[in-house]
Amino acid sequence: MKRWQLFILSLLLFASFFHVALAQNINQDEICFVYFTGVGCPHCAKTDPVILIDLLKDHPNVVAIEYEIYQQQDNAPLLLEYNNVYGSGLGVPLVILSKENHIIGDLPILNNLDAITGLGKNPCPLISGPSDFSDLDLTALPGKPKIWKDGRILIKTDGGNNNELLKNLLTASNISSILEGVNYKVVEPQPVALSGRSVTFDNAIQLDGWIFQWSGSAVQTSKCPSCPPPGEWSDCVNGTRTRTNYKCSEETNFQCVAYEEVAPCKTEKEKLTLVKLISLAAVDAINPCALAVLTLMLIAILTYNPKKKRNVLLAGLAFTVSVFVMYLFYGLVIIKFFQIIQILTSIRLWLYKILGLFAIVLGILNIKDFIKYKPGGPCTEMPLSMRPKVKKIISGITSPRGAFCVGLFVTVFLLPCTIGPYVIAGGILSAFEIIKTIPPLLLYNLIFVMPMIVITLTVYAGFARVEDVSGWKEKNIRNLHLIAGIIMFALGVAMFLGLI
């Protein structure tokens, strides 16, 4: 082979090697974007698994900074800030790549995945401006983000820790080597909620202000062995629960030792939600309208057959069960309605304050009824046109079966005078997944029908006549309005000011 041919061949081989090396370097460049979503959003349920599971699995160089705004209220204001900087809009799901490149809505995102993966490299779009992932300070990210990459996730809890350590956990091939000499705690991996499903990981550790979870091999360090997984949580006692966990430290000569881990039974958010729901249910339960309809029904049954008091018990309970079932259905419809309109995130951001204002107005109206009460029949809050129809329907009840059937129908007429607190409760619960709203809805409606159960048992046991119950209601109706008004007004002010 001649020299010049050998030179050209060498040059071609060098160029080929340089091209491959360059391509590999490009492939290692991170494509970083911000993803806004909401657990409970039906449109997000279509994009979450594609963006946060499939896309990351197929493209290890993709980094997704997720901001969930339905469950994490700290993240909701960031959507407004990003819109001010990037003009990205106020809806979810939303992918922000740059000022010129952002995609909103499920179908646009699913139809334009190539716009993400085809970039080759993309700096992280921060509120302060774009930043390459290599220069990104994860500890300075606002709100409560989740950073996803290649089957791993960092979840911010309080912030802090070492930025380089956090980025190395996302990118290093050997996680154990990164954690040598680092103070961390092995914890039970928790499912990460997406809209409509969740993602599970094999391993998890707790760092200062962060949770890191990943799938694959557990941490193996040169000093500490892999400790056994923690035991099951015990039942709640005095607001806390315990379980047996294990840790390794220098004090124990790097051996795993058992210790008792203590945690609160409920988060502060769950406790406050429970207090609000009980308050709203109590207001709804003492509603004169619902009590009036029940007493009318019992009077109708006693008038038809005054000697069969057993019918009073069965009819009262049948009517109560029918109201309970229908109001449970109405509650699920209300919650689903709020979850649908929350797709318009601008509404979501103001929803809690709007519900607070609504509660204040209801409280003022009830206090007004205490100050200036005008008797208007058996159900004063019910529109006048409905009252004769309700009386006619109730007067025809002669059996427990009829009480149940009429109860299902009468709830439609009860709604105008009982829907206020229920709407507020539905708005509060709409921040949770629909399946998780069923237990609090059951509790709410049990409190709502409790006076009906008490009245039915009181009349059946002979402690009072139906006329006595009706007379007590008329005598104390103004006080019922005052109690309901004070509770609703105080709750509304607290909600509007963000105190609860």
Structural commentary:
The protein is of the alpha+beta class. The protein folds into three domains: 23-219, Glutaredoxin (3-Layer(aba) Sandwich); 223-265, no CATH class; 268-496, no CATH class. The chain has 15 helices and 15 strands. It has helices at residues 3-27, 44-58, 76-86, 106-111, 114-117, 163-171, 175-178, 268-285, 288-304, 309-341, 345-371, 387-395, 400-429, 438-461, 466-496, and strands spanning 31-37, 62-68, 94-96, 102-104, 124-126, 129-131, 146-149, 152-156, 185-186, 192-194, 197-199, 203-207, 210-214, 240-248, 256-264. A nine-stranded mixed β-sheet has the order 4-3-1-2-7-8-13-12-9, with helices on both faces. A two-stranded antiparallel ribbon has the order 5-6. Helix 11 packs across helix 13 (400-429). The model is unreliable at 17-27 and 376-384 (pLDDT under 50).
> How much strand content do the residues show?
5-15%
Q: Tally the structural domains.
A: 3
Helix percentage range: 40-55%
Q: If you compute it from the alpha carbons, what radius of gyration comes out, rounded to the nearest whole angstrom?
A: 31 Å
- Protein structure class: alpha+beta
Distance between the termini: 85 Å
Q: List SSEs in N-to-C order.
A: HEHEHEEHHEEEEHHEEEEEEEHHHHHHHH
Biggest sheet descriptor: 9 strands, mixed
Q: Mean pLDDT, nearest integer? A: 77
Tally the beta strands. Answer: 15
Low-confidence stretches: 17-27, 376-384
Strand arrangement across the biggest beta sheet: 4-3-1-2-7-8-13-12-9
Q: What is the overall silhouette?
A: elongated
> How many H/I helices?
15
